[in-house]
Specification:
By secondary structure, the protein is of the alpha/beta class. It is about 40% helix and about 20% strand. A six-stranded parallel beta sheet has the order 3-2-1-4-7-8, sandwiched between helices. α10 links the parallel β13 and β14. The longest helix has 22 residues. The termini are close together.
């Protein structure tokens, strides 16, 4: 339980709602900043302004999945107000305060480290990433179906990268009858793809492998589908880029060539925010309780 602990939520999207609900159920005191346009306010949570006074009372600070941008701006879909997290705000946090976010950019990391604030990047955890691969795969399939005039079944499909998302995606595509090739860099990934009954190839051969592709799903966070590679793809190929921005596709060249290439990061929060929120809430609650216990602060 989090009885008596003050959890402050600063911005976010629909995924945060499940985390808020979980904190209320665990008897925490909950304050919401940047949720003034919430259609169904929570019973058991208080709307607050972003002030040093509120942050000075926080035992736990929860930021959006994307943390802040490089200027400290906080994203929130539930307010029209611009929110910025500053050095002064972080300095106001108590020394025992724990900060949770999905990913921390350099700006946020520097603020936390210079003020000795303990922070957790949930999206870098293997368990969260594996759970998140489920809604990511479903969203990727949905986008591919919506943007093609053929079925995924019996299609020539390429998955680039055999990480947590790539592995789940390749397995599902194979299960629905696609002819799946997997582009990898490492020999152990090549062996794993072969063991799964997929058709592995090394990404150094990508220019040749894309020549007959109907669909390409990219999970590699680097520009792997550059102009040279794209010049070998069919005009009617559908590319779904699941890598984080700026993605792994030369989108300018793809547009010039008439190739349908779609950047689709953060799919869990778009296609299944409730499920994505439950995944985050489950992990965050576990970490909150574990770390409050370690500090000897659990009531």
């Amino acid at each position: 339980m989090l009885i008596g602990k003050h959890v402050v939520f600063l911005g976010g999207d629909a995924r945060q709602l499940e985390v808020i609900k979980s904190c209320i159920e665990m008897d925490a005191k909950v304050s919401l900043i940047g949720f003034d346009n919430l259609q169904s306010p929570f019973s058991g949570a208080t709307q607050r302004r972003l002030t040093n006074h509120v942050l000075a009372q926080a035992d736990i600070l929860v930021l959006p999945i994307i943390g802040t941008d490089d200027q400290g701006k906080i994203s929130s879909v539930f307010t029209s107000e611009e929110l910025y997290l500053t050095e002064e705000h972080i300095a106001a946090l108590p020394s025992h305060c724990l900060l949770f976010t999905g990913l921390a950019k350099k700006y946020l990391k520097n603020l936390c480290e210079s003020n000795q604030v303990t922070y957790f990047e949930l999206m870098k955890r293997d368990d969260v990433a594996i759970y998140n691969s489920i809604p990511t795969v479903e969203g990727a399939l949905m986008m591919a179906i919506q943007n093609a005039d053929i079925t995924l079944h019996d299609s020539q499909t390429i998955v680039l990268g055999l990480g947590r998302v790539g592995l789940s995606l390749a397995r599902v595509l194979q299960a629905i009858g696609a002819h799946v090739k997997v582009g990898v860099r490492k020999s152990d990934d090549y062996a794993r793809a072969f063991e799964m009954g997929l058709n592995p190839f090394y990404t150094s051969e990508l220019g040749v492998q894309v020549e007959k592709a109907d669909f390409i799903f990219n999970t590699v966070p680097a520009v792997i589908l550059d102009a040279e590679v794209l010049s070998h793809t069919p005009y009617d190929v559908v590319i779904i880029d699941l890598a984080s921005k700026p993605g792994g596709v030369d989108f300018e060249f793809a547009e010039k060539r008439g190739i349908k290439a779609i950047l689709a990061p953060s799919l869990p929060g778009i296609v299944a925010p409730k499920t994505a929120g439950k995944i985050i809430a489950r992990t965050m609650m576990k970490l909150m309780v574990e770390n409050v216990v370690e500090e000897g602060n659990l009531q």
